[in-house]
Design brief:
Length: about 130
């Protein structure tokens, strides 16, 4: 089973930036990659997803224009670059993967989290003054 490890979280002031990384020890070139987040007392939600070819991306409305998802096949790593962070972005950010899914909007909007192939443990992002 694919293993995913997130990193890059931390404490940042409002308006600041962070880059999260999701790394796999083995190739995940066949997998679409998604970033989800879960804030205390809230449902887990999809933030951004990228297709397994890297040619299609999807963003939830609240992060459009602020976040960018990308992937580096040589490094088996996917990234989430977050800019102009807001306190409401505070959450645990988790990386997930689904093999060869063609509709990444469905991936990002799913609530059937157990269906996705793999999840990381998450990295905490806190946006506060």
């Amino acid at each position: 089973q694919l293993r995913l490890v997130e990193s890059g979280g931390g404490l940042v002031q409002p308006g600041g930036s962070l880059r999260l990384s999701c790394t796999a020890p083995t190739s995940f070139s066949r997998y679409a990659i998604g970033w989800f987040r879960q804030a205390p007392g809230k449902e887990r939600e999809g933030v951004a997803c990228i297709s397994w070819r890297g040619d299609n991306t999807y963003y939830t409305t609240s992060v459009k224009g602020r976040d960018t998802i990308s992937r580096d096949y040589a490094k088996n790593t996917a990234y989430l670059e977050m800019e102009n962070l807001k306190p409401e972005d505070t959450a645990i950010y988790l990386c997930t993967a689904e093999e060869r899914i063609t509709n990444i909007r469905d991936m990002c909007e799913t609530t059937a989290f157990h269906v996705l192939d793999a999840w990381g443990q998450g990295t905490q992002v806190t946006v506060a003054s």
